[in-house]
């Protein structure tokens, strides 16, 4: 006999379904309340929490609300799992939530689509455009290190996650950051540290048969995954790289 009590496990719940990950220990509530608890239980395996996210879709509008809230979960895997479940839905409030995934109001769907399609050059230009927008630059103004001292941490993290996700960890600010700090710590002279970083990520090139180097122009960059690790995003290159790396660390420290 089926129970009508919403707090009792139902057939569609993980506890009775037998198709998803099970909890490490303890009794699991059924219904939407149980789904919510399973999503928020950080002591459980991530697969178990993601299974509960998928189950939330069985609960109509309240389940959608739960998925939307999960976009702000502290776990990046939960954030992205909720995002993937919501990305193709047509409800206006879902679209709004995805567009406002960052409190800045920047729409990140175009950047995500470019990265997902492997259009690295267009994605880099879109990244620069987003950063210019967030820094409130006028037409013709160039991004420089000073613009990143108060750059929104939420947006910096989101841009970085998008690049890392769709490049399988090959590109991204948090990929460049440890490379830069190793270079900076190994050289007394800042110019030498910049040059070493440029060599590591492929922003500098040597002339064949000559002991001379030059910084690549934008058109000379490699916009595919054969590029060295950390080659992209370029943004304004060496003029912003150090400031972005430092801001990334500052955001993590203060989060």
UniProtKB/TrEMBL annotation:
It comes from the Bacteria. Residues 103-238 form the GUN4-like domain. GO terms for cellular component: outer membrane-bounded periplasmic space. It holds the Pfam family GUN4. Signal peptide: none annotated. InterPro entries: GUN4-like (IPR008629), GUN4-like_sf (IPR037215). One of its GO terms (molecular function) is tetrapyrrole binding. This is GUN4 domain-containing protein.
């Amino acid at each position: 006999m089926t129970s009508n009590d919403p707090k009792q496990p139902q057939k569609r719940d993980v506890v009775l379904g037998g198709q998803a990950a099970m909890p490490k220990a303890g009794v699991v509530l059924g219904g939407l309340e149980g789904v919510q608890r399973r999503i928020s239980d950080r002591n459980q395996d991530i697969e178990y929490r993601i299974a509960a996210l998928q189950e939330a879709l069985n609960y109509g509008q309240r389940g959608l609300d739960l998925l939307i809230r999960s976009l702000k979960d502290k776990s990046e895997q939960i954030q992205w799992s909720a995002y993937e479940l919501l990305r193709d839905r047509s409800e206006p409030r879902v679209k709004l939530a995805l567009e406002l995934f960052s409190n800045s109001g920047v729409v990140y769907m175009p950047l995500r689509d470019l990265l997902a399609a492997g259009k690295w050059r267009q994605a880099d230009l879109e990244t620069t455009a987003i950063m210019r927008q967030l820094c409130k630059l006028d037409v013709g103004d160039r991004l420089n290190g000073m613009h990143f001292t108060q750059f929104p941490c939420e947006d910096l993290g989101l841009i970085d996650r998008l690049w890392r996700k769709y490049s399988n960890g090959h590109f991204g600010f948090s990929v460049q950051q440890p490379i830069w700090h190793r270079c900076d710590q190994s050289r007394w002279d800042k110019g030498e540290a910049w040059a070493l970083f440029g060599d590591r990520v492929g922003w500098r090139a040597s002339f064949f048969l000559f002991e001379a180097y030059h910084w690549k122009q934008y058109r000379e960059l490699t916009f595919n995954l054969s590029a060295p690790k950390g080659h992209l995003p370029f943004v304004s290159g060496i003029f912003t790289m150090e400031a972005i790396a430092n801001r990334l660390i500052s955001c993590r420290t203060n989060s």
